[in-house]
């Protein structure tokens, strides 16, 4: 049986245990995202309308399949980062609308390709596109969405933007390939794992944030600051996603638990539990995620081992570390509403774990 997290958690501060109310942490995380959503709500209406327009095709399967994934939900965090970063930099024209849509198309295309590679049957609690329409259609529609993203970049007309987003797309693909080399490999190091998520997830966060400064024609230092913010925010975000896959909190969010385990993905909670475990426990991980010989009850045992060795706790602490770097990256910007909201987004990304 999977146990829900308790409503309090203990944190060590200077050797003293401090009790933190989880409900207040969750409420603060929701408020953090709500503030971002409110900040960019009018711009996001235009982004969403553009996404619907650009998904149109006379080939009926394309809007059907792409629309299925869009309808499954998602926070649209990456395009919202583009919009908020542009506002932070004082931009008040229109270029950020098309570029935010391009960012979302890149993200959606990678999700379609991810699900094919991972042979996933569910996406955000619903049947994945490849489960409904098959792998071939999913790959090809993913290619279509990538093409739409590049159309939007070309329409923007900035070589700098084109360079940033095309480079991000290439790095994301490299991250996907790199992940193939770590899947089912319990000897994967923490460094190798971080290389994967830095490429596969964090690179698009970085690019989405950076182009907000580019469209506003801000100095290179501000571009790099937003790049650092997005990169470290993305790492923290993925670390928490990897925690959630082994947490009852995932079920509360309406998502399935244990997808990474069933697919043999080597994430930081597994790396830490494997490294800290006994020989018998390491044999368990080798059987279940290397040999993929999984039986009833194995997921529950994996969760117990991860908790036993403090792997969930320490992964969250690493997320907090990268979150702190993301917050520091915004130090060069003057205080104001946009900056405060972007700082609060870091809290949202981490407090999802509770």
Polypeptide structure, described:
The chain is mainly alpha-helical and 354 residues long. The protein has a single domain (32-351), classed as Farnesyl Diphosphate Synthase (Orthogonal Bundle), CATH 1.10.600. It has 17 helices and 4 strands. It has a two-stranded antiparallel ribbon with strand order 1-2. A two-stranded antiparallel sheet has the order 3-4. Strand 3 and strand 4 (126-127) form a beta hairpin. Helix 2 crosses helix 5, helix 4 runs antiparallel to helix 5 and helix 5 runs antiparallel to helix 9. It is globular, with a radius of gyration of 20 Å. The two termini are 19 Å apart. Residues 1-22 have low confidence and may be disordered.
Considering the chains and any ligands shown, give keywords for the structure.
5% strand; two-stranded antiparallel sheet; mainly alpha; 354 residues; disordered N terminus
């Amino acid at each position: 049986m999977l146990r829900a997290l308790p409503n309090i958690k203990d944190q060590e501060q200077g050797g003293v245990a401090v009790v933190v109310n989880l409900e207040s942490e969750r409420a603060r995380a929701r408020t953090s995202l709500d503030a971002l959503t409110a900040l960019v709500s009018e711009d996001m209406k235009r982004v969403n309308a553009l996404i619907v327009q650009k998904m149109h095709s006379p080939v009926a399967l394309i809007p059907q399949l792409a629309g299925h994934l869009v309808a499954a939900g998602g926070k649209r965090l990456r395009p919202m980062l583009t919009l908020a970063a542009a506002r932070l930099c004082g931009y008040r024209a229109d270029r950020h609308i098309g570029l935010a849509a391009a960012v979302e198309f890149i993200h959606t295309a990678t999700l379609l390709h991810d699900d094919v590679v991972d042979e996933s049957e569910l996406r955000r609690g619903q049947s994945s596109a490849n489960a409904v329409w098959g792998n071939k259609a999913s790959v090809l529609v993913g290619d279509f969405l990538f093409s739409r993203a590049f159309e939007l970049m070309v329409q923007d007309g900035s070589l700098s933007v084109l360079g940033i987003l095309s480079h991000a797309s290439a790095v994301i693909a490299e991250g996907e390939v790199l992940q193939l080399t770590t899947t089912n490999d319990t000897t994967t190091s923490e460094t190798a794992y971080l290389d994967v998520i830095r490429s596969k997830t964090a690179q698009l966060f970085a690019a989405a944030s950076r182009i907000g400064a580019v469209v506003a024609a801000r100095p290179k230092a501000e571009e790099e600051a937003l790049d650092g913010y997005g990169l470290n925010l993305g790492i923290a975000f993925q670390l928490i996603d990897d925690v959630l896959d082994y947490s009852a909190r995932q079920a509360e969010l309406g998502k399935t638990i244990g997808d990474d385990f069933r697919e043999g993905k080597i994430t930081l909670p597994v790396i830490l539990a494997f490294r800290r475990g006994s020989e018998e426990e390491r044999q368990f991980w080798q059987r279940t995620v290397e040999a993929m010989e999984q039986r009833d009850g194995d997921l529950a045992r994996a969760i117990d081992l991860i908790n036993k060795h403090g792997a969930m706790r320490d992964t969250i602490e690493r997320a907090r570390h990268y979150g702190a770097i993301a917050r520091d990256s915004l130090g060069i910007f003057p205080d104001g509403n946009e900056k405060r909201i972007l700082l609060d987004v870091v809290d949202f990304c981490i407090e999802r774990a509770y």
